[in-house]
Amino acid sequence: MSSTFVRLLTVAALLCGPCAALAQDQSPVPAPAPVAKPPKPPKPPKPPRPVAATPAPDATATAPAKPGSSILGGAKGQGPLEVTSENGIEWQQGAKAYIARGNAVAKRGQNTLYADVITAYYRDIPNSSQTEIWRVVSDGHVRITTPTQTVVGDHGVYDIDQAVVIMTGQALKLTTPQDVVTARDSLEWYDGKQLAVARGDGVAVRGDRRLRGDTLVAQVSQAPGEDSRISRVDGKGHVIVSGVNGQVGTGDTGVYNADTGIATLIGHVTVARGDDTVVGQYGVVDLQTGVSRILPRPPTAEDTTRGRVQGIIIPRQKGPDAAPAKSAPAAQKAQP
Q1: Apex 173 CA angle, 168 and 176, nearest 5
Q2: Of 138, 185, 301, 311, which alpha carbon lies 20 to 30 A from 7's?
């Protein structure tokens, strides 16, 4: 069934619903009983106010724009949320939900959600006869596009009240003009803070620079007239950074400044290039120049352990008769 045909049928239902309610409520008011020589004729009672009927669904389910995730318009969007599909829209009054099946599309402004099935949940607005959509759930080949971002996954939940989008499934990916972020477990977008969270083997890539960790929190920035970009990434758990010249750094936690290309690593830090390895508790790695600095502790920490930085440097000989260098211990090497 085409979207146009569904719209025609449901618009008819939309018009008939309120009309029936009005016809029922606006019945003729009986004339008052006559009174002998009344000083003033009594005024007839006012008819009851018509009860607003709940609009019937049509092929376009809409809700007024309100604060929410800009990845589907939200506070930054223009106009209502529009939902269309190839196989029509099912209206479940008990669940207060519209279900669009078959190449469903939800659009607000320049931001669009694509999925096999999209379910939009609505609720009554207090002290009003209107309703609003407050939650959108998408399943199957989910893709969200904005002028500067694309997110893909298998299942998505868009909570308008919390301004949060959570994507799960296989091959999770967030793409901006400069950066790519992937995750195994979930990709989350927090519009109020402009944060993207990659959980489960998160990876952030810009050119030949890469940051990996159990959880990554990426701060997204957008200057006026420019594309959105990731300005900072915080990593927690098994953090690995890599850049030019094959340099690889690891640590328990890390902070990467995408503008300067400098990564700061804390806890069980190693920096390796080939077979050469330096070990400490705090490291600053410039992923653009390949220059690194390793310290026994963070600069602000008190020297209570009197730790030292350890380096393993494998000498190399030139010439065809040179013996191969011994590799550094496997525990001290990491793959980006």
Answers
A1: 135
A2: 138
